[in-house]
């Protein structure tokens, strides 16, 4: 079965017609009977066969030259171009009431010319039926577009309704998938600082160092307050160090009474500290 396109239908029609015109000629049985029973003797079978052979040979040569497949396809393409041009004029409203090239739109009561450009996008030549914008303009059933065509071709109208419903369902599923993809991408961008890949963190630190003072956080520091973690180890070292420092401090001799020089130094330090405090208070 040929695909439902103008080019395919016209090519099939032209092929069928040229095949009929290319059939070999043959006299009918009635003619042969009347020829054999003729009072004048008629034509001999040999003469008839020879004439038929020459005529059929000439006919076959004519068919090969005139009805070549390339010529038939070229004619079908021209017919398709005329159909598409007439359809574009009808959609744009440039047909001036003529309803296309052969008047089928007026005879069948097509309501396309009454619709706006937004509602007739699916009739534009080269319309992308994978686009959500075009799918949204498709009527759910063909009788909404042309009731007479739907009544004349019920099987095609039912097939259109099934395809339109399938397109609408697939378009809705694609919208949901796109929304989910966008949501997951946003989640990935928000969770990217929590990655635990050391290579990523190293690369991020290096890039931050090369960038010169970048303030963006590329990686969250891992939790240090864990059993046998880094913080626990550092606290243990600090505890041991404090014990050792306390022991050494206890072994130091008692300090001498404050001398006069130490008192003078303390007075100078308090004086300078007072100057700094007054300066800061002035701000």
Detailed description of the structure:
With 283 residues, the protein is mostly helical. It has a domain of 81 residues. The protein has 11 helices and no strands. Helix 1 runs antiparallel to helix 4. About 14% of the residues have low confidence.
Instruction: Give Rg in angstroms.
Output: 48 Å
Structural class: mainly alpha
* Strand segment tally: 0
- Which whole number gives the mean pLDDT? 75
Short description:
This protein is an all-alpha fold and 283 residues long. The chain contains eleven helices and no strands. 6% of the residues are buried.
Which key features would you list for this structure?
rod-shaped, mainly alpha, 65% helix, 283 residues, single chain
Record the SSE blueprint.
Blueprint: H1 6-21, H2 29-36, H3 45-66, H4 69-92, H5 104-108, H6 132-136, H7 147-152, H8 154-191, H9 198-211, H10 230-251, H11 260-282
Helix pairs in contact: 1-4
């Amino acid at each position: 079965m040929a695909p439902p396109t103008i080019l395919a239908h016209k090519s099939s029609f032209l092929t069928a017609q040229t095949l009929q015109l290319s059939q070999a000629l043959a006299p009918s049985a009635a003619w042969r009977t009347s020829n054999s029973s003729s009072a004048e003797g008629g034509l001999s079978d040999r003469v008839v066969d020879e004439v038929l052979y020459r005529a059929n040979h000439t006919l076959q040569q004519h068919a090969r030259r005139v009805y070549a497949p390339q010529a038939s396809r070229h004619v079908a393409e021209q017919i398709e171009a005329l159909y598409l041009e007439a359809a574009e004029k009808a959609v744009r409203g440039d047909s001036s009431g003529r309803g296309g090239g052969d008047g089928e739109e007026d005879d069948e009561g097509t309501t396309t010319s009454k619709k706006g450009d937004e509602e007739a996008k699916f009739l534009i030549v080269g319309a992308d039926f994978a686009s959500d914008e075009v799918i949204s303009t498709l009527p759910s059933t063909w009788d909404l577009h042309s009731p007479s065509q739907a009544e004349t071709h019920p099987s095609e109208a039912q097939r259109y309704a099934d395809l339109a419903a399938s397109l609408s369902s697939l378009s809705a599923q694609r919208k949901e998938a796109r929304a989910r993809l966008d949501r997951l991408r946003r989640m990935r961008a928000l969770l990217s600082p929590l990655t635990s890949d050391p290579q990523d963190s190293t690369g991020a630190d290096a890039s931050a160092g090369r960038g010169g003072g970048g303030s963006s956080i590329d990686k969250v520091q891992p939790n240090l307050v864990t059993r046998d973690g880094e913080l626990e180890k550092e606290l243990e070292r600090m505890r041991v160090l404090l014990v050792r420092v306390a022991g050494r401090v206890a072994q130091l001799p008692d300090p001498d009474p404050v001398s006069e020089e130490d008192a003078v130094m303390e007075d100078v330090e308090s004086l300078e500290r007072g100057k700094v405090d007054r300066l800061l208070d002035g701000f």
